[in-house]
Amino acid sequence: MRYLEIVLLLLVTFLPFTKRILLKILEKKYLLAALVTILVSHLLIEGWRWQMFPVYLLLIIILYRIISTNAITNYKLTFLRIVGYVVVVLLLIPGWVLPNILPVFQLPEPTGKYTVGTYKIHLKTNIDEVITKNEGDKRELMIKVWYPSLSSTNRKQEPYLDHANRVGFVNKYLGFMPTTALNYLDEVKTHVYPNIPIANESFPVLIFSHGYGSNASGYYTLLTEIASQGYIILNMNHTYESLGAVFPNGKEVFFDYDFQATQNVNSMKHITPIREAFKKNLPFEERHSIIREASKGYAATKMIKRWAKDITYTLDQLEYWNNEGFFKGKLDLDRIGVFGHSRGGGAAGQATIEDARIKASANIDGVQWGEMMDTIYQTPFLYLSSDWGENHEDVNLHVYKNKSTNYFYEAKLLTAAHPNFMDIPFMIPVKELAQTGNIDVKLGVKITNELVIAFFNSHLRGDSISIKEISKKYDLLKMTVHEGDSLK
Questions:
Q1: What is the rounded CA–CA span in Å between residue 374 and residue 381?
Q2: What is the DSSP letter of 124?
Q3: Which InterPro entries did the record assign (predicted)?
């Protein structure tokens, strides 16, 4: 919440019960002037938002009561006063709840030496679109690029989430509200600036893949920090499986719930054997065979392969983009990495198996369904998980059985939950609603950012700072480093 909002909330909470006492100390005109000044300051400096409407209404009622109240009159608790106090309490409940569960939040400021710019690319592919029902459709992707700049920050910052992602978010989480309910996000400082000049250097390239059914660009905290450290990040938006995408002609597309339903029809025949294998506490090798067989044909496996195809197709465009247009000469094609969160982390891992141009990759809390059980990485790999607990069916224990011929980092962020790697804890700072873990939100972000940056710095830039030192620095980060045969 913003400072003047907090002041207004405190005022409307206490004034209904203390205004008569104050009026014995202050003249009406001074108290009224102070309240009006605070309200006007809030509206001019911070801006109004609908979550504060109960507070505004309460303040208007209080102003009226101050004008009509005589401080000297003997106080009597009448029926009307009791009704008035009940109304005050009923308004105070949403007055406190709404601004706190849907706040104008503060994203952490990036710590790198670069200002961060964003640029959008519309990529038309020759990949058949399997999600739409129109025969002959080809897959189209909207890619948001986060990049380093040395430009001054006197331009207007990018709004938090575009219209399509806001619509998608409302449809998924706040279906009873109109999209305009998220207009308060315009007040969030994103620390990124659209289309500012890119710094005159060549930078390592990272491709980021989002979680399934999430806001594709809802990772400002993570991506802004990494870009500020000198990376160009191509933020994938896997069309119809993100919450929303906006194309240059204004067309908006959203998560396809009908396609999801068709894909989930036979899910339990794949999931049930896996759950039973863990429940029966079978020996590792016996359980491994069951999981490997059950994962074949599973909807998540198909999805990860589709998304990996999006990633590799995007990789195919890098040479052209490095020769023409906005990013001409700025992409270091010898230093390419991929990473992702949730299903996007699985897709990043799958793409690494398929494409030798990828020199390092990271999976942030994603189950990597697919072919990894039958192969081994040839490149450095980071797997960072949340703290799922002892009863979690750890499929990745089997997926990453063979690990890598290079470095393989197995890390866990203790007391963190799956959404802690997204912006969700900032958007909805109530743990029970956001389903986040007990870890301090900003500390979890800080640890994640430092680890991911150190990983790519080490394996794309050759920086000598040891990733192992980060696990020693934070008690909440548990990490094991496996060194493959190529290092021995």
A1: 16
A2: E
A3: AB_hydrolase_fold
Total residues belonging to the chain = 488
Q: What's the pTM value of the predicted model, to 2 decimals?
A: 0.91
Domain 115-487 has CATH 3.40.50.1820: yes
State the Cα–Cα distance between residues 264 and 213, nearest whole angstrom.
14
Is residue 225 within 8 A of residue 110, CB to CB? The reply is yes
The rounded distance, in Å, linking the Cα atoms of 201 and 232 is 11
Structure tokens at 420: 């802690």
> Would you state the pLDDT for residue 72?
53
- Residue 66 in tokens: 């101050």
Alpha-carbon gap, residue 379 to 360, rounded angstroms: 6
Burial class (CB in 10 A: 0-12, 13-18, 19+), 290: middle
Distances (CA, A) of 282 to 275, 276, 279, 394, 402: 11, 9, 8, 13, 20
pLDDT number for residue 467? 87
CA-CA-CA-CA torsion sign (170, 171, 177, 183): positive
Sign of the CA dihedral with 361 first, then 367, 368, and 373 last: positive
- DSSP-derived 3-state class of residue 465: coil
Q: Are 202 and 331 in contact (CB under 8 A)?
A: yes
Strand partners, 128: 138
- Which tokens hold the place of 341? 């969160």
Domain borders along the chain are 3-101, 115-487
Round the average pLDDT of the chain to a whole number and report it. 92
Burial class (CB in 10 A: 0-12, 13-18, 19+), 485: exposed
Q: Going edge to edge, which strands form the sheet with 192-194?
A: 192-194, 115-128, 138-149, 232-235, 203-209, 331-341, 360-364, 381-385, 407-413, 477-483
Helix (H, G, I), strand (E, B) or coil at 253: strand
Q: Which helix (H) or strand (E) holds 161?
A: none
Q: Point out the residues of the chain with pLDDT beneath 50.
A: none
First to last CA, the chain: 53
- Provide CB contacts within 8 A for 207, sequence distance 6+: 233, 234, 236, 311, 314, 315, 336, 337, 338, 339, 348, 351
Residue pointed to by tokens 């939040």: 105
Q: Give me the residue label for tokens 């104008």.
A: 104
Q: Is 369 helix (H, G, I), strand (E, B) or coil?
A: coil
Residue with tokens 């589709």: 306
Q: Which residue has the tokens 């990490």?
A: 479
Q: Give the span between the Cα atoms of 344 and 342, in whole angstroms.
A: 5
At position 337, the amino acid (one-letter code) is G
Chain Cα centroid distance, residue 15 = 39
Distance CA 410, CA 89 (A): 51
Q: Give the pLDDT confidence score for residue 84 in this predicted structure.
A: 81
Residues 206 and 230: beta-carbon distance below 8 Å? no
Q: How many CB atoms lie within 10 A of CB 21?
A: 10
